[in-house]
Design goal:
The chain has about 160 residues and is mostly helical. The chain has one domain (about 5-155). It is about 75% helix and about 0% strand. It has helices at about 5-15, 20-40, 45-70, 80-110, 115-140, 150-155. α2 (about 20-40) runs antiparallel to α3 (about 45-70), α3 packs parallel to α5 (about 115-140) and α4 packs antiparallel against α5.
């Protein structure tokens, strides 16, 4: 994996010898950089914010390694599967998160203080992060299941 000098990778692309599985570590690096960048505080920093950031980065590392394991490595169309299924899961989670957030805000506003709302948001965020990775993994796992073939000659070989 190149960190600074892109020329060896450029040469591989020019020679059409760059393998899909070689992109995995770069993808993991980019996702981790995004998680770390989003962990930087923007304004007042509370201990809960720091803890949420550290947990988010840890969940991202776990999630990527979890998906890599389910897919049996970074090859086997990993990036294609990730982007397609991450998009689908993200849309579904947004459809779940919006009403849940509204209910949580109403409950927190009526019955608890601001600190309780922060705690709700903290737990909510971590829960959704974990659910996202597991849900994407469940779709990737389904891509490994064999479907009945429409070609009898392949059925005879199995």
């Amino acid at each position: 994996m190149q960190i600074w000098d892109p020329n060896p990778v450029i040469e591989k692309f020019q020679e059409h010898s760059f393998k899909e599985s070689e992109a995995g570590p770069y993808f993991l690096g980019v996702v981790l950089m995004m998680a770390i960048a989003s962990a930087f505080p923007d304004g007042e920093t509370r201990p809960l914010d720091v803890m949420a950031s550290v947990i988010s980065v840890a969940i991202t590392i776990w999630g990527m390694l979890y998906l890599k394991g389910i897919n049996e490595g970074f090859g086997n169309q990993f990036l294609c599967k990730f982007f397609v299924f991450a998009w689908i899961v993200s849309i579904k989670l947004i459809c779940i998160a919006v009403p849940v957030s509204i209910v949580m805000a109403i409950i927190a506003h009526d019955f608890t203080g601001k600190e309780s709302m922060n705690s709700f948001a903290f737990v909510f965020s971590i829960t959704f992060d974990v659910i996202q990775w597991i849900w994407i993994g469940s779709y990737i796992e389904k891509t490994h299941q064999l479907r009945p073939s429409n070609r009898p000659e392949l059925e005879a070989l199995s």
